[in-house]
Design goal:
The complex is a heterodimer of chains A (113) and B (116). Chain A has 113 residues and is an all-beta fold. Chain A has no helices and eleven strands. Chain A starts with a strand and ends with a strand. With 116 residues, chain B is an all-beta fold. Chain B has no helices and twelve strands. Chain B has strands spanning 3-5, 10-14, 19-21, 24-26, 32-39, 46-52, 60-61, 64-69, 74-79, 88-96, 104-106, 110-115. Classes of the chains: A mainly beta (113), B mainly beta (116). Chain A binds chain B through residues 33, 35, 40-45, 48, 55-56, 58, 88, 90, 92, 97-98, 100-107, 109, and chain B through 4, 6, 33, 37, 42-47, 50, 52, 91, 93, 95, 97-109.
Amino acid sequence: DAGVTQSPTHLIKTRGQQVTLRCSPISGHKSVSWYQQVLGQGPQFIFQYYEKEERGRGNFPDRFSARQFPNYSSELNVNALLLGDSALYLCASSLTAWGTEAFFGQGTRLTVV
Amino acid sequence: AQTVTQSQPEMSVQEAETVTLSCTYDTSESDYYLFWYKQPPSRQMILVIRQEAYKQQNATENRFSVNFQKAAKSFSLKISDSQLGDAAMYFCAYKTMGYNNNDMRFGAGTRLTVKP
């Protein structure tokens, strides 16, 4: 079975632009979580979606939004990009929202210039 | 709010030797999960070991074991017989137990170097 896949792997955006990151969970997993990992730090929770509903939101501005589709894949959108949004964005999937086994993708490296 | 602290930004170990990575956390809850994740240069976070707070027995996975001290809120990772492939960033993480738990809290990480 394929693991968690994220696309794109890298991208460069200009300040003020918008970006969409994509995540496909492991087959059968219904929960997707998004994390932001700034260089030199641990991941920080952004969102969790389960069964297409938002189940949790971290301390991020409204410029960050996400959604989950009927096939359980997910998109993370960031509007009005700032230099500080430059980070590795990780997606994790699990069977349920309360599952303890979270599987991570390889992340999307976003650089804002 | 739950916080996770890793006080060792970098550690090094000789191949075949043993190393211990430290982690402390702060919580007022009695039931929770603790994890150690490994992040190699490939960037993918890989689960190394998991501990349920209600279990007194320390978790072990082959060469990896933990020392879970609930009262002290300490959760250290011991790597025995270190191998070159163990070199990576190691993150300690905390997760609330329960239906509505949604996120993991990570420490800042410890970079482990393995010397041949």
